[in-house]
Amino acid sequence: MEPENLKPEPSSQRSSTLRDIAARTGLSLMSVSRALRGPKGVTAETRERVLKAAQELDYRPNPILSALSSYRQRLHQPRNFSQIAFVTNFKTELGWQKLTWVNNYFLGAQERGRQLGYDVVNFWLKENGMNQSRASEVLYHRGIKGLILPPFPPARTRAHLKLDWDRFSSVVLGYWLAKPNLHLVAQDHHMAGLMACHQLRRLRFRRIGLAMWAGNSIRETHTLLDAYYGEQQRFPQTGSLPPFLWHHFEQEFKRFQAWFSQHQPDVLLTNGAGELPGAIARLSKAAWRKTPVAYTALGENDPAEWPGVRHNMKMTGYKAVDELHLLLTRGETGIPQGRTCNLIEGFWQAPSGFGKGG
Q1: How many Cα neighbours within 13 Å face the side chain of 319?
Q2: Peptide bond connecting 154 to the previous residue in cis, omega within 30 degrees of 0
Q3: How would you write the pLDDT of the chain (358 residues) with one tens digit per residue?
Q4: N or C: which end of the chain has fewer CB within 10 A?
Q5: Cα 272 to Cα 306: distance, rounded to the nearest angstrom
Q6: Which class for 135: exposed (0-12), middle (13-18), buried (19 or more C-beta within 10 A)?
Q7: What is the Cα–Cα distance from 276 to 274, expressed in whole angstroms?
Q8: Domain map of the chain by residue range?
């Protein structure tokens, strides 16, 4: 007699397969497989038929076979997306290289691109006076299907960009792009604000005053501002100092002086490296110039003696290529219905002696 545990499973317990769905719908295996992978390449009616049949048959894909299938597809894909465009929109073709943090995005993307077999190249949207519609055509006919979008100038606003998105897989760096809502990789500015406030309290600062350029707050969707207000609610004993946001610091200098005199912060918190102390140093020798300044958005190349949260901009570019690689290999193009946001945390670093009584 055959042992109980070696008997074949009854057919009612057998897992449903693509063939079962194909038989139920009258479609080919290829059509069923394509419909289950996503909406690209099949009609909405066909995809609905396949998904309904899959639900009725309780179809569950085998994750091992799915991974193997994806691997085989990548092996046989023509290398027609071996280039990734790092899309820039500065006044000059290489103007972005003057900004160290944007350049580090590019270097990180290049490094990861080489590891995965891509060539990450600069694509200047203003080349030969082209418009955005023409840019889509040029990118497409160059065989470029993957786009990385670093921040565009002007920095005071969030931008809108109109490309033929259905032709491309796209990842944006940071929150600067208002529309469309593309998959995103960015520094976690909210966590940076929480981290900075926590570390400053630990260093015995009790009156933390946030002062920053309004343009940066807008571009970061006010995430640092939200963290600052949240910290005041959680720690009311440290005082509720209103933030000071400026548009043109030198024109608003008297307003800054009044804010400082009224609220007497014992430390100034800002995001952009060098912005606040640089502006102050040009204007006055007042006693409050000696007030320490901490930052929430330092990069790899900023001086080590500046206290604050440091971010790895190269890692941001690196992770953007990872995200884009997944989109390309899955054939996901266009504006996503629900975008993913990959936030990268920084770390606190301060010189010895920084702090009250340090």
Answers
A1: 19
A2: yes
A3: 444 444 444 445 567 888 888 899 988 888 888 888 776 677 888 888 988 988 888 887 766 555 556 555 555 544 445 899 999 999 999 999 988 999 999 999 999 999 998 999 999 998 888 888 899 999 999 999 999 999 988 765 678 899 999 999 999 999 999 999 999 999 999 999 999 999 999 999 989 999 988 888 888 889 999 999 999 988 887 678 999 998 887 788 888 889 988 998 989 999 875 556 566 655 444 544 578 889 999 988 888 888 999 999 999 999 999 999 999 988 899 999 989 999 999 999 999 888 865 5
A4: N
A5: 12
A6: buried
A7: 6
A8: 4-59, 83-187+314-344, 189-312
pLDDT of residue 357: 56
Q: Tell me if domain 83-187+314-344 and domain 189-312 are identical in fold.
A: yes
Say whether the peptide bond before residue 242 is cis (omega within 30 degrees of 0). Answer: no
Report DSSP letters for 113-130, one per residue. Answer: HHHHT-EEEEEETTGGG-
pLDDT single digits (tens) 149-166 = 999 887 656 788 999 999
pLDDT digits (tens, 9 = 90+) for 74-98: 555 444 458 999 999 999 999 999 8
**What is the rounded distance in angstroms from the CA atom of residue 113 to the CA atom of residue 119?**
6
| Fold observed for domain 4-59 | 434 Repressor (Amino-terminal Domain) (1.10.260)
Tokens matching residue 228: 């600052």
Residue 216: C-alpha distances to residues 34, 91, 154, 174 (Å): 43, 20, 11, 11
| Contact between 187 and 174 (Cβ < 8 Å) | yes
Strand partners, 88: 124
As a CATH number, domain 83-187+314-344 is 3.40.50.2300
Sheet holding 183-187, edge to edge: 119-124, 83-88, 146-149, 169-173, 183-187, 341-344
Torsion from C-alpha of 132, 133, 138, 139, nearest 10 degrees: 70
**189-312 adopts what CATH topology?**
Rossmann fold (3.40.50)
Q: Which two tokens stand for residue 26?
A: 């009258």
